Amino acid sequence: MPAKRATLATIAAAAGVSVATVSKVLNGRSDVAPATRSLVLSALRQHDYVPPPPRRAEATGTVELQFDADLNAYSSEIIQGAVRAGGELGVSVVISIRKGCERTSKWARELVATGRRALVAVTSELTADQLAALAEAGLPLVVIDPLNLPRTRVTSVGSTNFAGGLAATQHLLSLGHRRIAYLGGPATAACNQARLHGYRAAMEAEGAVVRQEYIQHRRFRYGDGVAAGECFLTLPEPPTAVFAGCDETAFGVMEAARARGLRVPEDLSVVGFDDTQIARMASPPLTTVRQPLREMGGVALRRALRLAAGERIDSHHIELATELVVRGSTAPVADR
């Protein structure tokens, strides 16, 4: 006999919340506390919740999920979340890569002409002209982890980056590290700024010195992690730990350490950010800040569809909770 499909009431009972709260989480509403949202998401996964079939009016059109750089492990997690949500709603998701300079007014019109109902842009830097082109074309936009903060109000989805940066740095401080470096992404990226502020807040609260030479801003790419790691490790007084703004750059730092004959974590502790699948496969497995990337992809797609349906969005920015995951790439500071 087939298992009975979980309902909203099932999920609400498992999470100890109301059915209305579960509905808010599924629809990407912002008026849910991070801890409550985490409980609901856990219950949804545990019960393998599948929403009822979409109404006929919802099951048409496509949503463009657009990246501005080559896909990586971070992208894969976002894609899986968005595609799953699209499947639940009967909406196709088209994946594309489009550099910033290619986003012209013609680009916006082409998206509409090819049947796109909405656009979800990931880690993108959007200009005022590009936003105006989308608005003129009548194409709703949701941005995941925007690289800039345009003056125009843009609907966006992210995570609690400040809390994540704070937790990562506090973890290293608890292990006795005081010479802690921060390797972030582009300096203007909103997510990078929040993680940096979290790092600074933890350091200052502990009375640890934030050295200017211990802070670098690069791209969220492996090669940048290697280059930054080389810079850190050739300093007269190199750091004993590095907090990297993404898993990919954390792996680059680990490679830079290996190339210099240093061991992770015995000689250098490394913390990443994202908790992509490869974080668990690394040697040693990576201590990292988990952001719910799949949920972020799903929430962004649902919000984009709500905008396309003409619904009012009560909050233009939503943040999902982060969580520190301690694995084998961090250890107490060695005596030096």
From TrEMBL:
Give this protein's Gene Ontology molecular function annotations: DNA binding
Which SUPFAM superfamilies does UniProt cross-reference here? lambda repressor-like DNA-binding domains (SSF47413), Periplasmic binding protein-like I (SSF53822)
Oxidoreductase in keyword set: no
| Limits of the HTH lacI-type domain | 6-60
Judging by the UniProt lineage, the source's domain of life is: Bacteria
A Pfam short name: LacI
Tell me if Repeat is a UniProt keyword of this record: no
Q: Which CDD domains match?
A: HTH_LacI
User: Which keywords, in A-to-Z order, does the entry hold?
Assistant: DNA-binding, Transcription, Transcription regulation
| Name of this protein | LacI family DNA-binding transcriptional regulator
To which species is this protein native?
Nonomuraea corallina
